[in-house]
Amino acid sequence: MAQSTAGTVTPIDKGGILRAGATAPNFTLHVTPDQTLTLSDLLGRPVILAFYPADWSPVCGDQMALYNEILPEFRSFGADLLGVSVDGAWCHAAFAETRHLHFPLLADFEPKGAVARQYGAYRAADGFCERALFVIDKNGIIAWSYCSPVAVNPGADGILQALEDLPK
Amino acid sequence: MATLKVPITSEDHAQGPENAEVTLVEYGDYECPYCGQAYPVVKQVQKQFGKRLRFVFRNFPLSEMHPHAEAAAEVAEFAGAQGKFWEMHDKLYENQERLGEALYLDLAEKLKLSTAALRQALEQRTFEARVRADFKGGIRSGVNGTPTFFINGHRHDGSFDFETLLSAIHQAIGTAKIA
Predict the structure, then answer these.
(1) What pLDDT digit, counting tens, does each position of B125-164 carry?
(2) Cβ of A33: how many Cβ atoms within 10 Å?
(3) Does B62 contact A at CB distance below 8 Å?
(4) Domains, chain B, with CATH or none
(5) Are B173 and B21 in contact (CB under 8 A)?
């Protein structure tokens, strides 16, 4: 279902996530059952990539719901937000519809977690993504990244700071 | 650790003395069921600490998820502009399952506020900017859902049942004494 074509990748820091300065690995993933999205098509403006463990986390104001509320703030920086998990496109569609999400959720479904692995954001033992955030600048370079403990919603303060710090 | 980035000012809605040992800040949403659960817990905590605690409430409506949250926040701010924030805040939480215009007008009447002025404020979104400012400040402080509490400026990441909040506050007081 997914094809990933990595560019030049700076080595991952001791098994951690890709850091600032690394080229963001390009990818094409399903965004709906019959549509795909390619990272490089979005460049020219900043992209926020939010890997998260799974759809349907049972809390009010979970990470994706929070970002949904903050979209106007992200867009004021001209940034696109992409959520990524290993859930399939049908699952994402149901989740996005229920939560009224207004941004794409990408299915890193087959081969499972292939894109997350390229970003160092895959938990092989668990079989799902880390809660890892990347702000990618308009040229496709990672400007900021952060990996949160899986149980802790990282909020959006770091993302907004990173967007603010991007060269104009 | 996430810390409160927007200092508490006279613009904030606060209960308790300014120089209280502990300041508890809640970022809340009137339609969020967890905030509804936290409402009586906060009351209990306030009772427990009395004048040693100041409680501040800021708006964090998750309006995509909760269709009434934004309007309810604006209703509370409308009442606040007339010195009745806490009365309205309490009534909104106590009637959380009935949020909607009929309730707002009913509560305004009970609090002797002009229902015409309330209608106008809601239509003209008079308090939208205030609510949004709270929300944006919350994001900057690392609010990651509702309710989010800050105890003396530090985000409380534990649960918000009475015992947990109580011990977190005691801990904050202890730390404050050592420092």
Answers:
(1) 999 999 999 999 999 999 988 999 999 999 998 899 999 9
(2) 12
(3) yes
(4) 17-178 (3.40.30.10)
(5) yes
Smallest CA–CA distance, residue B127 to chain A, in Å, is 18
Contacts of B30 (CB under 8 A, 6+ apart): B61, B66, B68, B69, B72, B73, B76, B92, B93, B96, B99
User: Does B159 contact chain A (CB < 8 Å)?
Assistant: no
- Rg of chain B over all Cα atoms, to the nearest angstrom: 16
Tokens 């900021």 belong to A144
Q: Which two tokens stand for residue B14?
A: 């606060």
- Whose structure tokens read 């409160």? B4
**pLDDT tens-place string over residues A80-89:** 999 999 999 9
Map out the domains of chain A with their CATH numbers.
Answer: 3-165 (3.40.30.10)
Q: At A110, list the tokens.
A: 């087959």
Residue A159's pLDDT is what?
Answer: 97
Question: Are the CB atoms for B37 and B165 separated by under 8 Å?
Answer: no
Using CA atoms, how far apart are residues B151 and B170, in angstroms rounded to an integer? 10
> ipTM > 0.90?
no
